[in-house]
Design a protein that fits this description.
Elements (H helix, E strand, L loop, with lengths): L5 H15 L3 E3 L14 H19 L2 E12 L5 E14 L2 E9 L6 H15 L3 H15 L1 H8 E11 L2 E10 L16 E8 L5 E8 L3 E3 L4 E3 L4 E8 L5 E14 L3 E16 L10
Parallel strand pairs: 1-5
Antiparallel strand pairs: 2-3, 2-13, 3-4, 5-6, 6-7, 7-8, 8-11, 9-10, 10-12, 11-12, 12-13
Length: 284
């Protein structure tokens, strides 16, 4: 897991969190409800799919700050080591770029700053072919939403107020007989959890998921162990756009079937701002 790139790890965290409590068919009839005043699980999920896709598209036009706390724990759960990065996420040529601001409370070292500048310059001068490849990869990373429609069953278990907003609470379990397809399908049958959906605009307020069966990621580089737990919280920045606020993972993993790691990863997001991304253009 230590060999995974930071950005790839963030994608994985979001995917696992989302896949624990997202879009599926209702696994059975809910308790009788007044159709004039309530929606069933299938309707809520369908509306949430559309709302999530809209929020993802809108988020592509925001800059924001990210604080990444990456902790390694010993067998007793005590802290062994910690790295904290603060980055500003900016947009260059329509791509999100991680601009390192601090590492463990200090400005970037000369080596870190040179690497940051080199990566930024490369993105500024991205060729049309490179841009196409990047966009294709982004689309693949988001395509898991369509797979989730088949992978999970949902049950509406109640309503709660979260962060001052009324929400539907849904329980998600893997759909029996689901055959994995797509890049991330193999993990879907190994996670379950709950999803809190805003009653007003159907954005995700909170996701709470747990790994029920261990699974491998990467080319057998790491195996995420049963009991790993993920919580994702989101906030509305206006116009029914929901964005991540906090993502927390407590996980056990085995690297190359030899080294065991207990990991605590906390990502917090702030200072969301709309940008026109007008500074740079694709090289011709």
């Amino acid at each position: 897991m230590e060999t995974l790139a930071k950005s790839r790890m963030e994608v994985l965290l979001v995917l696992v969190a989302a896949s624990t409590a997202l879009f599926a068919q209702s696994r059975g009839p809910d308790k009788p409800q007044d159709p004039r005043s309530a929606l069933d699980a299938r309707q809520i999920v369908g509306l949430s799919v559309a709302a999530t896709e809209r929020s993802w598209r809108a988020r592509d036009h925001y800059t924001y700050m990210e604080r990444d706390e990456d902790r390694r724990l010993d067998s007793l759960g005590q802290l062994k080591s910690e790295d904290v990065d603060v980055t500003r996420m900016i947009l260059v040529n329509g791509a999100r770029f991680e601009q390192l601001m601090e590492h463990n409370g200090q400005p970037p070292s000369g080596k870190e700053q040179r690497k940051n500048d080199e990566d930024l310059d490369k993105l500024k001068h991205e060729t049309p072919v490179e841009q196409t490849a990047r966009l294709t990869k982004d689309q693949e990373n988001r395509s898991f939403l369509r797979d989730l429609l088949e992978a999970f069953d949902f049950h509406l278990i109640g309503e709660e107020t979260v962060g001052g907003r009324p929400a539907y609470v849904l329980e998600a379990t893997p759909h029996p007989g689901y055959r994995a397809h797509g890049k991330y399908g193999k993990m879907f049958s190994k996670v379950e959890g709950k999803l809190w959906v805003d009653k007003q605009d159907f954005g995700w307020i909170k996701v709470d998921g747990e790994v029920t069966q261990s699974f491998s990621m990467g080319l057998f580089v790491a195996r995420v162990q049963r009991g790993s737990h993920i919580i994702m919280e989101q906030t509305c920045v206006g116009d029914a756009v929901w964005v991540p606020k906090r993502l927390e993972m407590r996980a056990s993993a085995r690297i190359l079937f030899l080294k065991s790691l207990d990991i605590e990863r906390i990502l917090t997001y702030s200072d969301y701002r709309v940008t026109t991304d007008g500074s740079y253009s694709v090289s011709r």
